[in-house]
Structures are given as structure tokens and as C-alpha cells.
């Protein structure tokens, strides 16, 4: 499979900046209170500059502003103007935490994790944490990971204990209250993020906790009530965070990437032990009462660091070859694709994988830009947005809210390789799926690939391509009169620049806020959390056996194409794009002579006249 040749044939020339590497962290001596005592150096002029840039981004670039104003009843632009006016009157600045709180509150009000304010140094390079993780089961909140070496002396918190209260508040309510402060776009996402940030949060995107310590009430493994009093601790980066953007369209939950790196540092070796790992893929066979199936977890869609076209092509080639190799090594009776907790990454890296699972032609999700003079200026001066230029020219003149929609991934490339797996497929999602993984789930649903099983009521509902304000500054740096200015002290702003729309039967529906609703709901059990998801796998197995089983294996020699089929009644054979023959088949081996040979052979499988499988050799 030569991705480089396909890229060339498709005339696709992405020049992406690297996905952010996993940050390296170190533990800061002392507590969060010690850290905060030295934080806060922004001047009034620097605060005014940040607000001025936030106002430009919201008014001119933010793709979801009309939806957010209508759906959530918010007015971030007016709030920014009021903050700007207040700062203009001040001679002595308010405490810096108050400024950050107000600005983050404005950004969080639109409930969009793509559009955010990242605090300046020292917050930008720090994280507040407690050395344990809490996850939700059907009717319990359970500690699933612990770094015992960081607990207070004498503490005996263990994996498997049931948490009941957080600072005296019932744990479910504490997660909901915490989630309301942050940007999850639906109730499921807000609860999941509220629960996560009770124990770990990157201070670039979160204000520090209000409390200096936490009192955790729990039931120990012997059924006895216990309490743990634990101060917040601090991590600091030893490697700077990479910029948000890049030239290749990215859809990523920045907070989710930070959280994964923090937990990777705190809980080294505490991840799944019965998987084989290859990059972002974890895979294994799983035995259930319904049969033996393949289980593939996709932990992200960021492809790594690269600085040239050749490196990008090599990374993409390795990505698709690895996925193709994994799924074709899995049992033929069914495949479980699992994207829970996937924060996204490169949009093409997600959409390109869908073709391997279906006979249908993939239609990549199209994206729109909000109509504004500044977006038109971006489209006129940068290659990334050039496709939207003519539509923006017309919409700015006519007063239309949005431009036309165009795909972010080349259609030729997301259909270049075709179907590799012919068995039934299910997809597992949760409320932490965001951005590119939202787009992947939407494509899975919109092309009817299989059943979606959700451990939450929605995916995270991040329907956009994210860029940093620094990227927009670079795009127009040489354009006279550009309104973008460098932000001070390591502060950063990110924005949803293009919003994505669904295709198929949901064509035109925005993905933002709505997410993908699963067809089947599975409530995670304590066994799922602590024992490798056995009950979830049983649910997946029951859904897989409801779907039709197919097989279409091909091989060839110079004079014949041979096939092995299951669940088909006819195959049509094409050689170098031209029809060569049609054969009625039953389950098992068959073949068709190929006088004169040919370079490319494509076989299509049918049931009752309907196309249901495709294979090439």
C-alpha cells in the first residue's frame, strides 16, 4: 500500500505541523498554595491586549457563534466588550486570578473545547493534581488508579474503593457542579469532564482549584467508611507544549491531550496489560459468550512530529498500513472498534480509516467558515482556506451567515484503498470522544458501517477544525493592517475556525453540541472499570452476532482470480476498471479465468442484487 503514490495521484499536498508530543512533567516541591503564591505578573496593557484579540477571534473567526448564541443563550462578544471597557477605566489592575476567571468564564460559556483561552506562564506550563483517578460505573464511583508513592503518609487508598463524597458533597453532584464550570457541550460531556478535573487539570486551560486540599470520603475494600485529606499538588512541564495548530486540518481536544499526558506520567504502567500496542492502536482478541472477536482501541489521531512533506507522508503511510494489518489479523466473526477517551488529532488520520471497514464510498465531512471580512482575508492570502474564498466573497456581499461547505480531507484519499475487513463491525464511544473522534464516529454512523454502542448518551460533540490565534497571526503576518497581535507571557487563544457537517441521512446537521447518539447504551460496571471491560465486551458480542457475516478473500495468478466467499450470492470482477465477468457463488472457494491478466483486480460481492462487500488485489 503506497500512500505516497496515492497522495501524488490525488494531488493532495498537506504540509502539516507536528502534532503535539506527549509533554514531559516533573513534580514541583510543595503544594498548590505554594505555587500560587508566586504566580501572576500580567500588566494592565497585557490584559487589554488579550481581551482585544479574544474579541477579534469571537467576532470574525469563531465558526459556532450563531449556534452557541441560539442554543445556550450566551453573548460572549458583549461580555468581552464589557470587560474591555472595564479594563480601559482601570488604573490599578484587579488580582490576576480575577481577570483569568472572567476571561475563562466567557470562553467556557460557549461550551466549545476548541475555542479556549490558555493562561500565561507560569500556569501555561503547570498542572494541579491528586495522585488517583475516579471513574463512574452504573451505580458507583470507583478509584481505578492510584500513585501510592504520592499519597500522604499513612494513607491507604486502594484501587477498587467506592467514593461517596467530595468535600462533603455527594460525588455525583460534585462532578456535575465542577462540570458546569467547563466547556463540555452536552450534559454527558460536562459530567465526564467535571469528574476528570476533580483529580487532574492542566492549568493552561483550567483555573486552579478553589480549595487547597480535598477531603475524600470512600468505602474501603472491607466495606468500612474512610476519609482521606489530601492537598493539591503541582506538576511542571520540562518540555514546552507544542502550538495548537499546523497546516494539516486538526480536530483535537487540547485539554484531553494534556490530561492523557498527565495521567501517563502519574500512572506509568497502570494501563491495559492484555493488549498488543502499535503506536496509537491497542488490539487483542476477546472471547465472549457470543464468540471470539477482535477489539481495537484507537487512543488518538495525532500522527507524531514531522517538519516536511516526506515525513508527513511516511507518518500517514505507517498509520494506514498499521491499521490495515491489525484489522486483517483479527477474527473474521466480528470487530470491535473502541474510541473511548480519544481526544482527536489530524482529521485525515480519522477519516482515512473508515474505508477499510465498508464497501460504501466514503464522503468526508464538509466544513463551513462563518462569513466575515477577516475570514475572507484569510481565504485570499492562505492556501489552507483558499477553497472557501469564492463562497466567502459571495456570502459577505449577500449577508449569508456561512460559506458553502467543502471537505477537509481529500475524497480521493479517503477512498483510495477500499474495504479490508468484511465481517460485522461495532463502534464503542463515550462522552470523552472529541473532535476528530467525533468526526470518525459520525462517518461510521452516516455510512451505515455498523452499530454504535455508547457508554454515555453522546459523544463529546466537538464538530470543528481548531487553530491557534498564533497560526492566524502567521497567516496574515505580511498583510498590511492585520488585526492579529502576539499574545504576552505565553498566553494563547484557540478557535474553531471551520465547523463540520454530517453526511448521508443526516446531511447538513452540525456535529457541534449534538455529537453522535449511540444506537445501544451500555452502562459501565465496576467489572468493566477494574477487569478489562468484560461486560462491555459481552454487549458488543451480542450486537455483532445480530449483524450479517461476510467474507470476500482474493488471490490471483496470471490466468485466474480466486475468491473465498461467505454470505454472498454473486461476485462481479473488474480488471483495470473494466468489467471482466460475473459469477454466482455459494459459501466457499471459487474463481474466474483472466485471459490476458491485468494490473488491478476489483471484486464486488452482492446479496439479492445489493452491493455488500468489495475487495481488491
Characterize the structure shown:
The protein is of the alpha+beta class and 617 residues long. Among the domains are: 125-237, PDZ domain (Pdz3 Domain, Roll), CATH 2.30.42.10; 551-616, Immunoglobulins (Immunoglobulin-like, Sandwich). It has 17 helices and 31 strands. The strands form seven sheets. A seven-stranded mixed β-sheet has the order 13-14-15-16-20-21-24. Strands 4, 5, 6, 7, 9 and 10 form a six-stranded antiparallel β-sheet that branches. The longest helix is centred in the middle third of the chain and has 21 residues, at 309-329. Mean pLDDT is 90; it is low at 9-21.
Give a quick rundown of the structure.
With 617 residues, the chain is an alpha+beta fold. Helix content is 29%, strand content 25%.
The DSSP helix count reads 17
| Secondary-structure content class | alpha+beta
Q: Got a strand count?
A: 31
Low-confidence stretches: 9-21
Characterize the biggest β-sheet: 7 strands, mixed
- Please, what is the CATH homologous superfamily of the domain at 125-237? PDZ domain
Per CATH, the architecture of the domain at 125-237 is Roll
Taken from the alpha-carbon principal axes, the silhouette is globular
CATH class of the domain at 125-237: Mainly Beta
Radius of gyration: 26 Å
Amino acid at each position: 500500500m503506497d500512500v505516497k503514490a496515492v497522495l501524488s495521484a490525488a494531488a493532495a499536498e498537506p504540509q502539516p505541523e507536528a502534532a503535539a508530543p506527549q509533554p514531559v512533567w516533573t513534580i514541583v516541591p510543595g503544594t498548590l498554595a505554594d505555587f500560587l503564591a508566586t504566580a501572576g505578573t500580567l500588566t494592565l496593557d497585557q490584559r487589554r491586549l488579550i481581551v482585544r484579540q479574544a474579541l477579534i477571534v469571537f467576532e470574525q473567526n469563531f465558526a459556532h457563534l450563531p449556534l452557541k448564541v441560539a442554543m445556550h443563550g450566551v453573548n460572549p462578544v458583549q461580555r468581552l466588550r464589557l470587560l474591555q471597557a472595564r479594563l480601559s477605566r482601570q488604573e490599578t489592575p484587579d488580582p490576576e486570578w480575577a481577570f483569568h476567571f472572567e476571561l475563562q468564564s466567557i470562553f467556557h460559556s460557549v461550551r466549545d473545547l476548541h475555542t479556549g483561552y490558555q493562561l500565561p506562564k507560569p500556569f501555561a506550563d503547570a498542572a494541579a493534581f491528586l495522585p488517583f483517578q475516579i471513574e463512574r460505573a452504573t451505580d458507583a464511583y470507583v478509584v481505578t488508579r492510584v500513585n501510592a508513592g504520592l499519597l500522604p503518609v499513612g494513607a491507604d487508598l486502594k484501587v477498587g474503593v467506592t467514593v461517596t463524597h467530595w468535600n462533603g458533597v455527594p460525588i455525583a453532584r460534585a462532578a456535575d457542579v465542577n462540570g458546569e464550570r467547563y466547556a463540555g457541550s452536552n450534559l454527558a460531556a460536562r459530567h465526564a469532564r467535571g469528574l476528570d478535573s476533580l483529580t487532574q487539570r492542566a492549568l493552561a486551560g483550567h483555573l486552579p482549584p478553589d480549595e487547597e486540599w480535598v477531603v475524600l470520603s470512600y468505602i474501603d475494600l472491607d466495606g468500612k467508611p474512610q476519609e482521606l485529606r489530601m492537598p493539591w499538588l503541582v506538576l511542571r512541564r520540562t518540555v514546552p507544549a507544542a502550538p495548537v495548530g499546523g497546516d494539516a486540518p486538526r480536530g483535537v481536544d487540547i485539554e484531553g491531550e494534556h490530561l492523557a499526558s498527565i495521567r501517563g506520567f502519574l500512572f506509568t504502567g497502570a494501563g491495559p496489560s492484555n493488549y498488543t500496542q502499535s503506536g496509537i492502536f491497542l488490539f487483542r482478541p476477546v472471547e465472549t459468550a457470543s464468540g471470539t472477536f477482535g477489539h481495537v482501541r484507537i487512543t488518538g489521531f495525532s500522527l507524531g512530529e514531522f517538519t516536511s512533506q516526506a515525513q508527513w507522508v511516511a507518518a500517514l503511510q505507517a498509520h494506514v498500513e498499521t491499521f490495515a494489518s491489525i484489522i486483517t489479523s483479527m477474527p473474521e466473526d466480528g470487530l470491535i472498534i473502541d474510541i473511548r477517551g480519544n481526544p482527536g488529532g489530524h482529521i485525515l488520520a480519522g477519516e482515512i480509516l473508515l474505508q477499510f471497514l465498508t464497501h460504501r464510498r466514503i464522503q468526508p465531512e464538509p466544513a463551513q467558515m462563518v462569513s466575515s471580512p477577516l475570514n475572507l482575508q484569510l481565504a485570499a492570502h492562505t492556501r489552507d482556506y483558499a477553497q472557501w474564498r469564492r463562497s466567502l466573497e459571495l456570502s459577505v456581499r449577500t449577508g449569508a451567515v456561512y460559506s458553502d461547505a467543502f471537505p477537509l480531507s481529500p475524497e480521493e484519499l479517503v477512498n483510495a484503498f477500499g474495504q479490508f475487513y468484511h465481517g460485522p463491525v461495532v463502534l464503542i464511544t463515550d462522552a470523552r470522544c472529541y473532535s476528530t473522534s467525533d468526526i470518525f464516529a459520525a462517518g461510521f454512523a452516516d455510512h451505515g458501517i455498523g452499530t454504535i454502542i455508547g457508554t454515555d448518551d453522546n459523544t463529546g460533540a466537538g464538530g470543528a477544525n481548531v487553530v491557534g490565534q498564533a497560526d492566524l497571526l502567521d497567516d496574515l503576518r505580511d498583510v498590511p493592517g492585520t488585526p492579529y497581535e502576539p499574545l504576552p507571557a505565553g498566553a494563547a487563544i484557540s478557535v474553531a475556525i471551520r465547523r463540520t457537517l454530517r453526511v448521508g441521512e443526516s446531511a447538513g446537521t452540525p456535529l457541534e453540541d449534538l455529537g453522535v447518539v449511540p444506537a445501544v447504551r451500555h452502562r459501565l460496571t465496576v467489572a468493566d472499570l477494574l477487569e478489562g471491560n468484560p461486560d462491555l465486551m459481552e454487549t458488543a458480542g451480542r450486537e455483532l452476532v445480530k449483524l450479517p457475516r461476510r467474507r470476500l478473500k482474493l488471490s490471483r495468478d496470471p490466468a485466474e482470480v480466486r475468491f473465498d466467499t461467505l454470505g454472498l450470492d454473486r461476485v462481479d470482477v473488474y480488471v483495470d476498471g473494466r468489467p471482466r465477468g460475473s459469477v454466482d457463488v455459494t459459501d466457499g472457494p471459487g474463481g474466474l479465468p483472466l485471459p490476458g491478466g491485468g494490473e488491478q483486480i476489483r471484486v464486488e460481492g452482492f446479496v439479492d442484487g445489493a452491493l455488500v462487500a468489495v475487495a481488491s488485489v
